[in-house]
What does this fold into?
Amino acid sequence: MHNDEKKRSDFVKQKESISRRDFLSSATGATAGILASSAVSAFGDEIKGGWTNGKRINPSIDNLRVVCCIDPAMMKSDPKSWDIVSQNEPVDHEKVLRTMDAMACALAQKNSAHEAWGSIFRKPASKEWQDVTVAIKPNCFMPNNPRVAVIDAVCKALIGLGVQPAKIIIYDGCGGAKEKFGGFAGTKLPAGVVMSNKNDVLGGTIDAPVPAPHAGHFKCSAAIAKGSIDILVNIAVNRGHHLAGTSMTMKNHAGTFEAMPIHLGGGLNYIIAFNKSEAILGGEPVRQQLCVVDSLWAQTKGPMGAPNKRPGALVMGTLSPAVDYITARRIREPLMGCTHPPELGRLMSDFGYSDLEKLDFVKVEPVKG
Amino acid sequence: MRKLQSCLLLYVALHLAASAIYAGEKPDSAKFVAFRSSVSACAGWTEQKDQYRYFVPHGLYDIIDGGADEYIKMGMVDGIVVKLDSAGKKTAELYIEDFNKPGGAQGMVNHRQATASEPKPLAGLAALGAFYDEVIGGCEVCCYSGTFYFEMNLTGYDKLDPALKDARALVAALTAKKKEKGK
It folds into this structure.
């Protein structure tokens, strides 16, 4: 730690020092917010992120195109317990794989799954698929995690395109990826896929720039911040949260970026900000290429606790705010009885979108058999 | 040279101590011993001793991430988490937290009830403010006694009623010990 701190700028040390003192003295959230917001670019330069309004994540797929399949048959029964084995036992693994393929076809508007995944996932022009590195960020915190079948579908799609299993890294900077999913390698997940213990396989963390509305430099998974990862896939679950009423793919990257600034005044501003960062939405092609919400079982409240609802739904799209917003409005509210605060709209308006009332899924019919 | 080495060792020791405090890894608090013993002794339950944690406010973020905000805002001072196993894959995760002032723990129960999904009173335990929220495979229960707030998550059940029965037994064990302490 001593060496890391020596490498940081005086500005970053001051921010952390203020943050620690502020927390320990139980200062109000408002005060913490003021202190945190003062942590803008150290030298007066505006921090540009990976996002600009109007940017297309995928030139072939509209950012607002979000597909959803609701099929309770993907769950043969309900888990009694929520350890990682028990919550995956009742899942119809093969049906989930076929459903994900059908959803990919709907998202990319292609007739074959291989074509569809090849349209969704794009590699740098200078690389062959066998040289592409992928990082998959499932939400490993708390019970209720993305089901293994959903992750397997993504892994199989990538391997089908030519990505080597050893270049697929499953991580959660907050911990739990190796602990939760390591046991499935070679069975419900492809052999050779790499499980990271926090950010170990991604080279630890480095300070990465985050733009407004919570500009500053924050710890980020190093390989993602440096651009060494070519494709980033975000796989979240459907939970409640006091910030904007829900925690899905956007909140999931509090596990790529350090999470504590959320609780030190950054709040929703910080979540929105790191989702606009160069680390997440930079790169050519854009690094984060697919966002999935596993809503087979879900929580009306959260983030703690076990699921209390069974929507039986999977959702996917290319733009994280759109996936989250539409899932909140079209699953959490009508199917789960949730309500959300007005701040939910910021998930979209902060990315330059308005006229949100008409946003809806493209519905994918349940696969047969 | 020796002075330099001594200074360096002292610096490292102080830094580690400061980091440990920042991380919330203080020595356990004796006030929770009786609570832990009472639930560990409940018939049919076995404590997963390697899962036991003592935490101060900042340390709760490591356990429940953003869920910690509401506890800290409501004035939690410190707490423990105890995990229990029972036959047939039943599990109980208990959070026992000290809010250190009159009304603090009760306020936490009221807050949790206001933000719960579909809270229902736990019959016979109104004096403790006890309510439950059904989840798939079990229930979540909150109540208080004095300055102490109790929250338990029980899963591994086919039906709700056995989960509630076990929750009542655990609440009884916790609050009986608290009454004994108050004598």
About this structure: Chain B touches chain A at residues 12, 15, 19, 22, 58, 61, 64-70, 73, 89-91, 115-118, 133-138, 140, 153, 155-158 (CB under 8 Å).
